Prior knowledge:
mainly alpha
Amino acid sequence: MTDSLAEHYLEDAVKVFRTQKKLADGAAAQVSDEEFFRAIDPESNSVALIMKHMAGNMLSRWTDFLTTDGEKAERRRDSEFVVEGEDRAAVLERWEAGWQTLFDTLASLKGVDPLRTVTIRGEPHTVVAAVNRQLSHYGQHTGQIIFLSKHLRSSAWKTLSIPRGESETFNEKMGGGRS
């Protein structure tokens, strides 16, 4: 049991971020290397570019989170949407580094920190608002990774949640059902 609402909030945020990462990892693992880098049209991003962008965002936002602006001067956001000779392993290494930075930062926050002010692109946010901003942002991109991976795998897709037609069986297994 947590001692405060702030601690509960931070614990829950970590759980949601971990779920987002697990879903994105599970989706990306299902595509081939060629599919990993495939954009479905000229205006779309590949799984690789979405992951590269998320990693760049995480490294910028969560490095020195409480003390520096979340948009670091050295970040080159536009380059996150271009494949520049990276292979899958390089993209995934950066992806893991981004998530590790996020999780390390959240683990370092204390109960009073959620009410502190941080800046992102010069705009002040409470820590809660900044975390919520990233939960939403990463959730949108996680959905894109899942959708694109599912599209590319088509009938070979392995569901990451409850399989179609098995909701009632799942609910019964969970001890739920309808009341």
